[in-house]
Amino acid sequence: MLQVPLRARVCALAVLAAGLAVWSAAGVRAQAPEREVRIERFNVEDGLAQSTVTALVQDRYGFLWIGTESGLNRYDGYAFTAYRHEPDNPGSLSSSFVNALVETPDGALWVGSHGSGLSRLDPQTGIARRLRHVETDRQSLASDRVSALFVDREDRLWVGSEAGIDRVDLATSQVTRVLAANEVVDLAQSADGDLWAATHEGVLRIAPATGRVLARWGAEALGTELASAVWPNADGTLWVGTNDAGLFRLDPRTGALERVAAAPGPAGLDIQDLLVDRGGTLWVATAGGLARRDGLFALGDGPRDASLGADADPAGRPERAAVGRDVGQWARQAPADTVPPVRCGLRPPRCAVFQ
């Protein structure tokens, strides 16, 4: 088994955003002194495939995988290795435009593309197997534009796309079309096992076994149809982000929806992604920058897009963070008073937590 030690500077929470060149490593800090951050930046000159970072995941051996609009990178703590679509190589990625990433329990990396379906990449061989939408085949992907990937506690792979939600059998790669929906952009699972989807028709609560929509929170509840992110809390509630109506807390047990009164500061309300770390702190990636619920820091003049990704402890809670934006850079961030532990080996989806 390949094992590569990562340098201690590799960190744990991954914030996928859209550009870091304007961020100041010395000047960016949280309001709480114990949560000060350091920023270390990487860009195309350092080996990134392209300037827009769209997805981050750290695999089980510690390698960081970085999706961009022109290729997939693996970072081992020292250098970047690029993976791209090669027209004459059927074992390459289906597309170089990466939208989503997730590692499955068998160690494979699944890569969702902007218009060419899914690829199952074997990290050991570098060979990819492709799944595509076929108009006449109901057992193919509902759409080739994949925007969300999620593995639930039953080790089922869920695929969100512009056309709805599919489930992929990891043993056979057979696709089951679960639900038609408009632009599924995020997926999560609550403590009771139900599946939650952020879509462009609101937030959907779904029974995984049947695909039936159990409840929907749309414009009448959220003030918008454009849900952008959903993240479960340890207390059983969920955070819900929207593109144009702010941040909400939803209680699945009662269906109660609470709009968070205090917006996450000058970072704005166009929420791209959400993540709750090991300390219970909510991180919010917005079109105006990165915000933290226990004290704000806004980075630069803000990314065009942002998302968060986490490869966490068994409780699924991230600790430190990496951030990427569309000026061709991504950066690691960690509390200034801690040194991220060295990991040997490789492992998630939009905002990623690293050990």
Give an account of the 3D structure.
The chain is mainly beta and 355 residues long. It has a single domain, classed as 7 Propeller (Methylamine Dehydrogenase, Chain H), CATH 2.130.10.10. It has one helix and 28 strands. It has one helix spanning 219-222, and strands at residues 13-16, 37-43, 53-58, 64-68, 71-75, 80-83, 98-103, 109-113, 118-121, 128-131, 146-151, 157-161, 164-168, 175-180, 184-189, 195-199, 202-206, 213-217, 227-232, 238-242, 247-250, 257-259, 271-276, 282-286, 289-292, 307-310, 321-325, 329-335. The strands form seven sheets. A five-stranded mixed β-sheet has the order 2-28-27-1-26, with no helix packed on it. A four-stranded antiparallel β-sheet has the order 3-4-5-6, with no helix packed on it. The protein has a four-stranded antiparallel β-sheet with strand order 7-8-9-10, with no helix packed on it. It is globular. The protein starts with 12 loop residues before the first strand and ends in a 20-residue tail after the last strand.
Name its key features.
355 residues, Methylamine Dehydrogenase, Chain H, five-stranded mixed beta sheet, four-stranded antiparallel beta sheet, 1 helix, disordered N terminus
Topology:
Blueprint: E1 13-16, E2 37-43, E3 53-58, E4 64-68, E5 71-75, E6 80-83, E7 98-103, E8 109-113, E9 118-121, E10 128-131, E11 146-151, E12 157-161, E13 164-168, E14 175-180, E15 184-189, E16 195-199, E17 202-206, E18 213-217, H1 219-222, E19 227-232, E20 238-242, E21 247-250, E22 257-259, E23 271-276, E24 282-286, E25 289-292, E26 307-310, E27 321-325, E28 329-335
Parallel strand pairs: 1-27
Antiparallel strand pairs: 1-26, 2-28, 3-4, 4-5, 5-6, 7-8, 8-9, 9-10, 11-12, 12-13, 13-14, 15-16, 16-17, 17-18, 19-20, 20-21, 21-22, 23-24, 24-25, 27-28
